[in-house]
């Protein structure tokens, strides 16, 4: 199992394309530059199976419709943010003077969902609200990696001043879900460089004293 990171859009959001030996692929958070994402998929002869969203902020959904229309694949999102796709106030784009939306998701996750199997891909679903109410992290045990969206960053945590944000809840999510993963787990965030669970446990200033 391998992945590619494409940093897209004006706020430098990380889109991830995970793929296996059969060139099947899962796309996480196609945030912008849909044509560039499609070009990367096609130049590597990948076959997308689904799009997973860690959350529905505008910088994570801007390329969804373009990619989905090209490949006709299902879109997964948590129930608490299903209506954010079409709501510019909730998804934050209105706050930044934009109007970014995406069509309705075909698959809705809930707090009761623990696993997600798509083809040969098996994700552990970690419900990690705080940055936004429906934030989800996807743990790919076989690749020793977690796609944390905007919950946890290298040396930082997600902002909580946007609609539905809650810092106390975010810190609980990080400590009770993400920091319980093996320390060598690679953390692939929605912005910035990759890190590991162990590195964040040792040095992230936002996590001390909680």
UniProtKB/TrEMBL annotation:
What PANTHER family does this protein's entry cite?
HYDROXYACYLGLUTATHIONE HYDROLASE GLOC (PTHR46233)
- Which coenzyme or cofactor does it need? Zn(2+)
What is this protein identified as? Glyoxylase-like metal-dependent hydrolase (Beta-lactamase superfamily II)
- Tell whether Metal-binding is among the UniProt keywords: yes
Q: Which InterPro entries did the record assign?
A: MBL_Glyoxalase_II, Metallo-B-lactamas, RibonucZ/Hydroxyglut_hydro
Q: List the lineage, top down.
A: Bacteria, Bacillati, Bacillota, Bacilli, Bacillales
Native source species: Fictibacillus barbaricus
Pfam (any one): Lactamase_B
> Domain Metallo-beta-lactamase spans what residues?
12-191
Q: Does the keyword Nucleotidyltransferase apply?
A: no
Source domain of life is Bacteria
Query: What are the alphabetically sorted keywords of the record?
Result: Hydrolase, Metal-binding, Zinc
């Amino acid at each position: 199992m391998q992945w590619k990171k494409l940093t897209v859009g004006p706020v430098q959001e990380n889109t991830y394309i995970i793929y296996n030996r059969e060139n099947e692929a899962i796309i996480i958070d196609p945030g912008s530059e849909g044509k560039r994402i499609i070009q990367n998929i096609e130049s590597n002869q990948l076959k997308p199976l689904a799009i997973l969203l860690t959350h529905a902020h505008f910088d994570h959904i801007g390329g969804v419709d373009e990619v989905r229309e090209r490949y006709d694949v299902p879109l997964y999102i948590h129930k608490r943010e299903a209506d954010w796709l079409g709501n510019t106030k909730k998804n934050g784009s209105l706050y930044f003077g934009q109007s970014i939306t995406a069509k309705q998701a075909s698959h809705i996750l809930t707090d009761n969902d623990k696993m997600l199997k798509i083809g040969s891909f098996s994700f552990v679903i970690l419900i990690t609200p705080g940055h936004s109410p429906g934030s989800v992290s996807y743990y790919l045990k076989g690749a020793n990696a977690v796609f944390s969206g905007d919950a946890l960053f290298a040396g930082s945590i997600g902002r909580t001043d946007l609609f539905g944000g809650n810092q106390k809840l975010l810190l609980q999510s990080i400590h009770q879900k993400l920091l319980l993963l093996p320390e060598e787990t690679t953390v692939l965030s929605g912005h910035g460089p990759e890190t590991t669970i162990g590195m964040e446990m040792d040095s992230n200033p936002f996590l001390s004293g909680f």
